[in-house]
Design brief:
heterodimer, A: alpha/beta, Alpha-Beta Plaits, Pectate Lyase C-like, 2 domains, five-stranded mixed beta sheet, 4 helices, 18 strands, about 15% helix, disordered N terminus, B: about 270 residues, alpha/beta, eight-stranded mixed beta sheet, about 40% helix, about 15% strand
Chain lengths: ~270, ~270
Amino acid sequence: MPGEIIKNGEISLQTEVTESIKTPQKNNSAVELKGSVFTLPILHLQATSIPAIEVDLLTHLSKARKFFENAPVVIDLKSIAKVEQDFDFHGLMKLLSQQRLIPVGVKNGSNQQNALAVSAGLAILKGGISPPDVEEKPIIKEKPAFATDNAIKDSTPVVVAEPDKTKVVTQPVRSGQQVYAKGGDLIILAPVNHGAEIIADGNIHIYSTMRGRALAGVRGDVNANIFCQSMEAELVAIAGNFRVFEEDMPAEIKSKSVRIHLDNEQLVITQI
Amino acid sequence: MGKIIVVTSGKGGVGKTTTSASFATGLAKRGNKTVVIDFDVGLRNLDLIMGCERRVVYDFVNVLNNEASLKQALIKDKRCDNLFVLPASQTRDKDALTQEGVGRVLDELKEDFDYIVCDSPAGIEKGAVMALYFADEALIVTNPEVSSVRDSDRILGILAAKSRRAEQGDDPIKEHLVITRYSPKRVEMGEMLSVEDVQELLSIPLIGVIPESEAVLSASNSGVPVIHDEPSSSGQAYTDVVSRFMGEDKPMRFLEAEKKGLLKRIFGT
């Protein structure tokens, strides 16, 4: 299902994959530290005034109140990072907890904002893969990507998602080029070269050599697949779960026809 | 109406200017009225390789700024009757190239010439984009090594997206691959990409392979395009490129390493 990116008003919510660091530990210890990948809603702040944030936040939350109950959120400070005046993190934390959201960290803040955030008990998050920016259309009303079936039933569907659109590309996708099939599948009938990036909300089919990066289900569709006739990719990702290939591509998939899909949040690559 | 051909590569030092000089000379030798333009404003190399650097009075930028007429700036080649050089300026930078200006000059040249060869600067910045913007066909010059192939791939993407033909939705620019500095021996040793590898990576038609040869360097230093050096393998390979460009069917040459004869093997020469 396509995801939700709401960019009107002063805040917006979107999902993002954040990868934590892997620390291998011996089995016989009392704790075990392991890395895992989570999809978290991001709260993009576009204003510093807490009352203004509250008004817009309530509007957004009212669309899927149940889904956001006790949901962890990451606060993106990118748009207000240049604001000199101290940001009231305690006020924001209070507002979020009133709305039963659990703030876990901030990203893209200035040094000063980061320091304030840490003292307010928030973590500083770095990296993360955002869904591609949708600049041409500021308002996209679709079903939330991170919603479970229940959540969709409980929430009021805002607007029906756009019908699936398939994009067909017949020319080679070359280094530095990016092709994005919004809201549907991407079919490519020519080579995708090193340094090229192909992205789809749905499935990706490549009826040629795949040497670049392929990202399917970028709005969170875990059922998306990537098919390619000759697998030589630098990176493949489905719904934010990604794998990078350097010189270590296993012989059983290298230059073979493969299907890539997700099984329990694990990328599975099989020869077809 | 003349045809505009850009010689481009993305990467520097792969042989764009050498190719431009020899290709334009080859076209002119076959009786086509040809002009070769140096788009590398600020550096200037073409006039050296063409051996006309002392005759540069007015340059491309002077013409763009209406400070000189085309007639004043065009330098007639001393070896070929049909060949002219439009040199770059060394005292200006690439900001002097404006789309309107370049378009106007090229339109004017199209009236008089059969072929207009644009020698692109390296990179993907303004100078390179200006050189390819108005092109009808393109020679993509690539060395058989990974970074050069990657940069050529990038420039092919720009040809397909940023040229006038792409912007106006006309037929795309016709692309031709020229592999330069090819050494069959090093390919055999696995040190160089083979013609097949390069062609597979770039997936455009091959128009010629220019073998690595000492003749190229000495030709550049003496200001005589290597195509005039008829006994040399590089000179012959460029002649083949021009023939194929004109539609002749010529088998590819210089793809195999020279086999040492028995005597050579014994005496090691």
